[in-house]
Structures are given as C-alpha cells and as structure tokens.
Write a structure and sequence with these properties.
five-stranded mixed β-sheet, 5 strands, flat, alpha+beta, single chain, 2 helices
C-alpha cells in the first residue's frame, strides 16, 4: 500500500466535496492515519457512526487498536472533520502527512510517514517539494 492515497469528489461546483487520505502504512498494510475532510455533513455523519450529534456534525476521531508484528500495541486513527471549504490538494496532503508524524511520535513508533513517497509531496505537480 502506498504511503499516501488521495481521493476527491469534486466534479461540479454545486456539489459538496470530500478528500480522503491514508498515510503511514503499518506492517499489516493498514494506515496509521486516515484523514477525511468533507463539505458534506452527511459524509461526516456516516464516517462517524457512533457519535450522537446535537446539532451540526463537526467531526470525530476513531481509534483502532492494532498489534505490530513484534506484539507491540499500536493505535491507528481515522480523523473526520467537516469544513466549509476544502483545502487544496497540496494543503490536504501536508495536513495528513503532519498528522501522521504526530500520531507516530506520540506512540514512539518508528515513523512510517515517508514510506512510499520518499519524503516528497505527491500533489506538487512536478515541483520537488520535500517533507522533513
């Protein structure tokens, strides 16, 4: 699985868009971080099924406990958030990537966030923009 998978539903100006990224492949091929950002409240509600909403859904985080090959416990996370305007593809990729570093660092994990991208932005349209 690649280090970053991006998806966008942006075909018509009147349609609400959603971006999804999975970053930081773990040894079991699951991502350390999945980020969902949507202008569609229905997407946020469906991605956060166990949340009781009192008003407008803003977002959630959903932890998944996984076991590494060495027996160590890892918590992977899906972060879902509503937005009034989608970030650019590049800004979204940077956000997902930096969240991956934060989740890995908080668990003292070997950082999987550059696996598959060699430390370069995948959405930079030919520019050699490098993560550090």
């Amino acid at each position: 699985m690649g280090a970053l998978l991006l998806g966008a539903a942006l075909t018509l100006p009147a349609c609400a868009g959603t971006r999804v990224a999975s970053v930081g492949p773990l040894p079991n091929d699951e991502p350390l971080v999945t980020l969902v950002v949507s202008e569609d409240r229905h997407v946020v509600r469906s991605e956060c099924p166990d949340i009781l909403w009192l008003g407008v859904p803003a977002g959630c985080h959903i932890p998944r406990r996984l076991e590494a090959p060495d027996g160590r416990q890892i918590v992977a996370v899906k972060i879902v958030r509503y937005t009034d305007s989608l970030p650019s593809a590049m800004a979204f990729e940077i956000e997902a990537h930096e969240l991956c570093h934060a989740v890995a660092a908080l668990q003292n994990l070997p950082d999987p966030c550059h696996t598959g991208n060699a430390g370069f932005l995948q959405t930079s349209h030919g520019a050699q923009l490098r993560f550090r």
